[in-house]
Amino acid sequence: MTTTHFHPEHALGAQTFSGEATYLVNRAQADDLKAKGPGYIEMFKGLSEAVARRLEGVELPRPDVVYGDSHDLDLGGRIVELRATGRAHSRGDQVVRVPDADVLFTGDLVETGQFAIFPWFPPHDTDVSGLRWLAVMERLAADPPETVVPGHGDIGGADLLGDVRDYLRLLRDETWKRRDSAVSEETTAAEIKALMLELHPEWTGREWIENAVACLCAEHSHPHQDE
Ligand SMILES: [Zn+2]
């Protein structure tokens, strides 16, 4: 058993299988679970009473096996490739590829019909990186699978990877263009939101566009490799 990243709606079902299945994640995700899991449970409880009820008594899952960057799992002839992507949507993102079925599970690196979720909550959480996320999407889109299983929304094809890559690229370019011309962050966010809604009128999660702009405003090219 594995999860794509530590966020509650992705990882907090894992303890249901404890004792029955081995829980396997990458090192950065294990660290995220331990360091940030409890805070995110509390934050999600504040979202609504319904969510709070569902999280009542939930225990933080503890990984049984932790790998570094990559791990191949042999499920009796079917190989499943677990790959840490490095920091992007979270610090410990992982994609899962099943080569013989040509399927890629992306977690929240990809959503269908939704603006990219940027959990940019300074000063509490600033792990999301638009630049690193874009680099991951460029890499994934260059070697696309036939089927993509996103973190939220419908299953789709390789075009889902290109959609997120193009969105992040435009977001970066439009944000930096305004930053370079000393446009205020408020105006930048308003203009980019208008632009993105025009391009993707049917996408949900519009509230994430401002977070994404704020994140990109704080980022600079040539990020340190060791971050
Ligand atoms: Zn997430």
What's the layout of helices and strands?
Layout: H1 8-11, E1 24-26, H2 27-45, H3 49-55, E2 65-67, E3 70-74, E4 79-84, E5 94-98, E6 103-111, H4 130-142, E7 147-152, H5 159-180, H6 185-199, H7 208-217
Parallel strand pairs: 1-2, 6-7
Antiparallel strand pairs: 3-4, 4-5, 5-6
Zinc ion is lined by residues 5, 7, 10, 89, 108, 117.
As laid out across the biggest beta sheet, the strand order is 3-4-5-6-7
Question: How would you describe the shape?
Answer: globular
| Biggest pleated-sheet summary | 5 strands, mixed
Mean pLDDT, nearest integer? 95
Structural class category: alpha/beta
Bound small molecules, by name, code or SMILES, are:
zinc ion
Q: Write the H/E string, N to C.
A: HEHHEEEEEHEHHH
Give the low-confidence spans.
Answer: none
Question: In DSSP terms, counting alpha (H) and pi (I) runs of 4 or more, how many helices?
Answer: 7
Strand share of the residues? Answer: 15-25%
Kindly report the oligomeric state of this protein. Answer: single chain
Tell me the helix content: 25-40%
Cα distance spanning the termini = 28 Å
C-alpha Rg (nearest Å): 18 Å
| Number of strand elements | 7
Could you please describe the fold and organization of this structure?
The protein has helices at residues 8-11, 27-45, 49-55, 130-142, 159-180, 185-199, 208-217; strands spanning 24-26, 65-67, 70-74, 79-84, 94-98, 103-111, 147-152. It has 227 residues and is an alpha/beta fold. It has a domain at 102-227. Helix 5 (159-180) packs antiparallel against helix 6 (185-199), helix 5 packs across helix 7 and helix 6 crosses helix 7 (208-217). Bound molecules: zinc ion. Zinc ion binds at residues 5, 7, 10, 89, 108, 117. InterPro entries: Metallo-B-lactamas (IPR001279), NDM-1-like (IPR050855), RibonucZ/Hydroxyglut_hydro (IPR036866). This is MBL fold metallo-hydrolase.
